Amino acid sequence: MHELSVAESMLDLVADRLGxxxxxxxxxxxxxxxxxxxxxxxxFAFPEAAEALGFGRPALEIRTVPARAVxxxxxxxxxxxxxxxxxPQCGALERTLEGGDDLCLExxxxxxxxxxxxxx
Length: 120
Fold this sequence. Notes:
Blueprint: H1 2-18, E1 24-32, H2 39-52, E2 59-65, E3 67-71, E4 77-80, E5 95-97, E6 103-110
Parallel strand pairs: 1-2
Antiparallel strand pairs: 1-6, 3-4, 3-5
Helix pairs in contact: 1-2
């Protein structure tokens, strides 16, 4: 399951940004239907990877991004559900993709660490 390595890569980026692992409450990712990533597998793998890397077990909310294309032959815009979709107007395969191959960790919610009172 390559979604585990995707989750680990996302968490490596978070660790770089935070200066190391810190407990996370939740995270949100954007996953395009043509990204090659199974959203359910990523949703399962993310808390497992997070726990193993010292981030606790944050939930991962996934926003699925549909794919849109514009036909290069007839300029028709259409939705795509897989990489082999042809233009519904003219049957051409040549197209310009306008989204749907996204894979982005959009946000993380870091657990607030209570500050201990300063004792002189």
